[in-house]
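Hey, resending since the last one bounced:
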Amino acid sequence: MSTGTSRTVLHDADIARALTRISHEILESNKGPQNLVLLGIPTRGVTLANRIGALLADITEQLPAQGVPVGALDVTMYRDDLHRNPTRTPQPTQIPAGGIDGKTVVLVDDVLFSGRSVRAALDALNDIGRPAAVRLAILVDRGHRELPIRPDFVGKNLPSARSERVNVRLAEVDGIEEVTIGS
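The structure tokens again:
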């Protein structure tokens, strides 16, 4: 945690609303739940992907009993900054039983900043299979892209200074539900 001040920009109800909106947008964009696969980028992206999967099941009755397949895509070994941040522990990659070939894969993450995690996720996907399309769902887009990557579904655009830190805390991981920004 940073030593400066921070302010809360999203509370639990705001996060729930944003994920509900993202879920509806995913269904509309895909023209239904068919051939969708959600892959969360650890850690909080996996939690968000699971929540979106549950919301999709609630929204539509076109889903089979198991719902939209949800998995996890660890990108640690595909990152281009391992030499600067070697302490990140790889998490398991869990691809749903039906795989990703020919499916619309929605990558889910908490914060989009430089775009390097998403680039790493695209590289990881290439090693796993060949989706028909890849979409990106982000809870918070804070700008400052270093790569030409743009999210398809955004919970909140949050303009920020490069020096500021955006923290997403989710009840399942952190015991509290909020998004804060601070120095």
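The chain has one domain: 6-77+94-182.

Sorry for the duplicate.
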